[in-house]
Write a structure and sequence with these properties.
Number of domains: 2
Shape: elongated
Family: Belongs to the sirtuin family. Class I subfamily.
GO molecular function, one term: histone deacetylase activity, NAD-dependent
Bound molecules: zinc ion
Number of strands: 9
Strand order of the largest sheet: 3-2-1-7-8-9
Low-confidence stretches: 1-5, 75-80, 207-230, 290-295, 411-421, 427-431
CATH architecture of the largest domain: 3-Layer(aba) Sandwich
Distance between the termini: 69 Å
Protein name: Sir2 family protein
Radius of gyration: 24 Å
Largest sheet: 6 strands, parallel
Structural class: alpha/beta
Helix content: 25-40%
Order of helices and strands: HEHHHEHEEEHHHHEHEHEHEHH
Mean pLDDT: 81
CATH class of the largest domain: Alpha Beta
Keywords: Metal-binding, NAD, Transferase, Zinc
Organism: Ophiostoma piceae (strain UAMH 11346) (Sap stain fungus)
């Protein structure tokens, strides 16, 4: 039977080649004070006619570097991940018990780094820009939940690529908090849990240099894990553990599907099988070579992130597009827009005639197009391009905007709002 196939863009491996060095806009915005003034001018300039004065922010991995999380790219824009690193694809994860063991083992060890990490000054500066009325919404590619932690109430956040704080069931789509899931992984894998505990005790997670720091060397630890020297997490929260004994790793099933098995389309019950400790088990009536059955194993939990080869849910896609469509300008922070989904949103903003600002170390995909027709000497708030770390410019930008707002509104209404700032104040700072 032939059904119409709707093609959805799938998450792909990002560009790995360096992008061209940026053209700084305005040209002299190469010092922190000039960059801050240019950003203030950008946020307070009158929007093009027909567009609202609000700003939508699009953030990426660079924003969380100051929280101790890895970036995909180094300062000069080159791809930092080991060339041999190959992330898992969605279809592999769903189809292969072995692939899931390997993924969850690495994620089990990597979760500690993410769990310890906290939002940094950039996240809190964005909270303040929201409170002051300059930023209406945030779209993030980051899966670390830092935006929601830093500004849970004020500024809406679309998590374009999902989040690591939950695992989600591929059958019933119910979610399990990652902390609960982590506790289950520890219960089902006591030797790994002991290794992890000893690695933390030995300070392996404190080490900046992967060749220093010593993990525990318990005689019970999996042999190959004894050689891990310092643990570096990838941006998605897992770690590289070459040759670790993944095959014995166990993971739990979806508790909802275990308790209340769903029915398949043909009416049969989708029973989840578990071992005597409650770990997910390959259904006994299928063989691992049964390709038809492979994709139907019920009760499989996956991280609630968009994996490579998986598509962004329509609801999230629409929310992100809506955030662009309801704003009058776009500020891109700490991302090279290497992923298609993020680059496409910036392109959507450009197509709507929205002024675009970018703060990023290293070049950004397609930025020459975003800034086409912009004279770096006459940008006048219509564009800004700064090559600095966000935590160096956003907190002082907030301070400056607070100062300008209170000087404009002094003696009157104390409410701060973007519309009350006199753009000329920033022009003075630029000269
Ligand atoms: Zn389920």
């Amino acid at each position: 039977m032939a059904a119409a196939v709707v093609r959805k863009p799938l998450m792909r491996i990002p560009y790995t080649e360096p992008f061209a060095a940026p053209r700084i806009i305005p040209r002299h915005a190469t010092t922190p004070s000039a960059a801050i003034a240019a950003l203030g001018n950008f946020l307070t300039a009158p929007p093009p006619s027909g567009l609202p004065s609000s700003t939508v922010v699009l953030t990426g991995a660079g924003l969380s570097v100051a929280s101790g999380l890895a970036d995909y790219r180094g300062d000069n824009g080159t791809y930092r991940i080991n060339k041999t690193y190959r992330p898992i694809y969605f279809h592999e994860f769903v189809a292969s018990h072995e692939a899931r063991k390997r993924y969850w083992a690495r994620s089990f060890v990597g979760w500690t780094t993410l769990h310890k990490a906290k939002p940094n000054a950039s996240h809190y500066a964005l909270r303040d820009l929201g409170r002051l009325g300059y930023v209406q919404s945030i779209i993030t590619q980051n899966v670390d939940s830092f935006h929601r932690i830093a500004h849970p109430d004020h500024t809406s956040t679309v998590e374009l690529h999902g989040y690591l704080r939950s695992a989600v069931c591929t059958t019933c789509h119910g979610e399990v908090p990652r902390d609960d899931f982590q506790a289950e992984l520890a219960r089902l894998n006591p030797i790994w849990a002991e290794f992890l505990y000893e690695a933390i005790e030995a300070g392996a997670y404190e080490s900046e240099n992967p060749t220093t720091g010593a993990p525990g060397t318990s005689s019970d630890a999996p042999p190959s894990l004894k050689f891990v020297r310092g643990i570096k997490s990838n941006p998605d929260g897992d770690v590289d553990l070459p040759d670790a004994p993944y095959s014995t790793f166990r993971y739990p099933p979806c508790p909802h599907c275990l308790a209340n098995p769903l029915k398949a389309e043909d009416g049969t019950q989708l029973h989840v099988e578990v071992d005597s400790d409650g770990a997910w088990k390959m259904p006994s009536h299928t063989s691992s070579t049964d390709s038809a059955a492979k994709t139907k194993h019920p009760g499989i939990l996956k991280p609630a992130v968009v994996m490579f080869g998986e598509s962004i849910s329509p609801a999230v896609k629409h929310a992100a597009e809506g955030a662009i469509d309801q704003a009058g300008r776009l500020l891109v922070l700490a991302t090279s827009l290497a992923t298609y989904s993020a680059w496409r949103l910036a392109t959507r903003a450009k197509d709507r005639g929205m002024p675009i600002g970018i703060v990023n170390m290293g070049g950004v995909r397609g930025e020459d197009v975003f800034f086409a027709g912009i004279d770096p000497d006459e940008s006048d708030g219509k564009a800004v391009r700064v090559e600095m770390a966000t935590d160096a410019v956003l907190p002082p930008l907030v301070e400056e905007l607070q100062k300008q707002s209170s000087s404009v509104s002094h003696g009157g209404d104390r409410t701060l709002s973007a519309g009350r700032v006199n753009p000329a104040l920033f022009k003075d700072m630029l000269s």
